[in-house]
Amino acid sequence: MSNVLVVEDLARSFGDLVAVDGVSLTISPGETYGLLGPNGAGKTTTISMIAGLLRPDRGRIEVLGRQMSASNLEAKSLVGLVPQEIAIYPDLTGEENLRFFGRLYGMGGPELAKRIDEVLAIVGLEARRDDKTSEYSGGMKRRLNIAIGLLHRPQLLILDEPTVGVDPQSRNSILESVEALASEGMSVLYTTHYMEEAERLCDRVGIIDEGRLVAEGTRRELVAQVGQLDRVELRGRDGIEAAAAAVRAVEGVSEAAVGDSTLSVLATEASSVLPALLSAAGSAGMTVTGVEVQEPDLEAVFLHLTGKALRD
In whole angstroms, what is the distance from residue 140 CA to residue 155 CA? Predict the structure, then answer.
């Protein structure tokens, strides 16, 4: 199938400030794509252009083959945007907010009523539909924000920091909702300051820094790009020195160091080479009593590529 989103050479400046500088990316059907970057990296400017809210200085944006622009209502109707800022009316109930925004989308009658039921179920707010949103917790307001973005059945859902400032229960509910939407085939563009969310949700990740996309790929591909290796620690007794020499000969192993009752091994694809490591260590006379595998995470990759922590 064709890509849901195609972005080519996107650029935008504000006076002398270059906010986005040549960003290109694609999102396929059913894919969750994470856009990660420190504050001021250009994430929000990028998604504002993708959603048709901001005109790019240069570049092309297509959603299912329709060129995105502020005036192309067909392209904009294919996108659901859930902004960082909570955009609901506090004096209205949850259902009234949804009805109001549904009418802005051109929906009405039984179709809108049915869709309101569906999106309230997706975000787990059925029981609070008749309460004024001024009585909602911060997490509930964010979940309603997501429901509004889903009302018109978009092909691409853009979530900009959807879990900022929410309680753990609401955060987990939001993540579960995103997982469910992706499993049903919705494409998602997700920005976050929480690396564990990207690890959990995203099929691919793009790392943006100072307006440029500096790396892109799956977690494993990004780890390979920066030369990060998995670490396997074998704990045990007897023959550890001999075991070190033996595991160094295993394909995929780059280093093996002997410690106090441990053998630490650096390797690519630890899960694949682990059986060979255990076999080599055992054949060399080591009695293995414990195994620990540590895979590099996105935080390490991000720090390596940008020199910054994600929340900087």
Answer: 24
> For residue 6, what are the CA distances in angstroms to 25, 148, 160?
6, 24, 18
Span 229-295 CATH architecture: 2-Layer Sandwich (3.30)
* 3-state secondary structure (DSSP) of residue 98: helix
Three-state DSSP state, 248: coil
188, β-bridge pairs? 32, 157
Tokens of 297: 């995470």
**Of how many residues is the chain composed?**
312
Q: What pLDDT, on the 0 to 100 scale, is given for residue 295? A: 77
pLDDT at 226: 65
Phi-psi group of 209: left, alpha or beta (phi > 0 → left; psi -120 to 50 → alpha; rest → beta):
beta
According to CATH, what is the number of the domain 5-224? 3.40.50.300
Predicted TM-score of the model (pTM): 0.79
Q: What stretches in the chain show pLDDT beneath 70?
A: 1, 226-227, 308-312
Residue ranges covered by each domain of the chain? 5-224, 229-295
Is-contact 241 285, C-beta < 8 A? no
Helices (H) and strands (E) in the chain, counts: 11, 14
* 3-class secondary structure, 99: helix
- Helix axis angle, 168-183 to 138-150, nearest 10°: 20
- Examine domains 5-224 and 229-295 and report if their fold is the same: no
Q: Sort strands 187-191 and 156-160 into parallel, antiparallel or unpaired.
A: parallel
C-alpha distances in Å from residue 155, one per residue of 30, 67, 186, 216 = 9, 14, 6, 22
